[in-house]
Amino acid sequence: MRILGIDPGYAILGYGIIDVTGNRFSAVDYGSIMTDASMDMTSRLQSIYANLTNLINTYKPDEASIEELFFNNNAKTAILVGEARGVALLACANGGLPIGEYTPLQIKQSLVGYGRADKKQVQFMVKTMLNLAQVPKPDDTADALAAAICHAHSKGKKDFLKGITG
Questions:
Q1: Which of 40, 67, 68, 139 is catalytic?
Q2: pTM for this one?
Q3: What are 6-64's pLDDT values in tens digits?
Q4: Has 118 been annotated as catalytic?
Q5: Is 29 one of the annotated active-site residues of the chain?
Q6: Helix boundaries (H) for the chain
Q7: How many CB atoms lie within 10 A of CB 80?
Q8: Are the beta carbons of 134 and 100 closer than 8 angstroms?
Q9: What is the tens place of the pLDDT at every residue in 106-134?
Q10: Looking at the chain, which terminus has fewer C-beta neighbours within 10 angstroms, N or C?
């Protein structure tokens, strides 16, 4: 199975594409979609949508995983990130991808076993689980790969439970 993980943002949107075979994970591609602060918000959203659509068409993931918004004290920032997240959801839906949505707590729990793990612990697990030479940068990229791994773990549990319950 191929999973596209997304860490939403309007300045930097992290993405990570992994292949899952049994309990093995391998990184296919990862990086970030960056938009320039000089662009108006509509242009930034168009760029995010076009780039994600291109990734979906190029790598043909089977499913997508996106991090839910963490509450931000700055309402304006939260709204703008929410708009970028909506565009990411639309790109995945238009690409025909089933979408898993996970809170930061769920992602940390899935990778580290502790929902209050710090960013460095999550990044270390991403590097280790994907057998990468170094932690992916920027942080948004590592977070997107973590979301993809979380989805694979969640999917594995659901498939396992389906198998034992009929």
A1: 67
A2: 0.92
A3: 999 999 999 999 999 988 999 999 999 999 999 999 999 999 999 999 999 999 999 99
A4: no
A5: no
A6: 41-59, 75-94, 104-112, 119-129, 139-165
A7: 18
A8: no
A9: 999 999 998 888 999 999 999 999 999 99
A10: C
| Cα–Cα distance measured from residue 157 to residue 23, given in angstroms and rounded to the nearest whole number | 11
pLDDT computed for residue 164 by the predictor:
38
- Residue in 62, 63, 118, 140 annotated catalytic: 140
The answer to whether 63 is a known catalytic residue is no
Q: How far apart are CA 66 and CA 88, in angstroms?
A: 8
The answer to whether the beta carbons of residues 3 and 63 sit under 8 Å apart is yes
Task: Give the Cα-Cα-Cα angle 97, 7, 35 (nearest 5 degrees).
Answer: 105
Q: Which of 7, 36, 63, 159 is catalytic?
A: 7
In which residue are the tokens 């270390």 written?
124
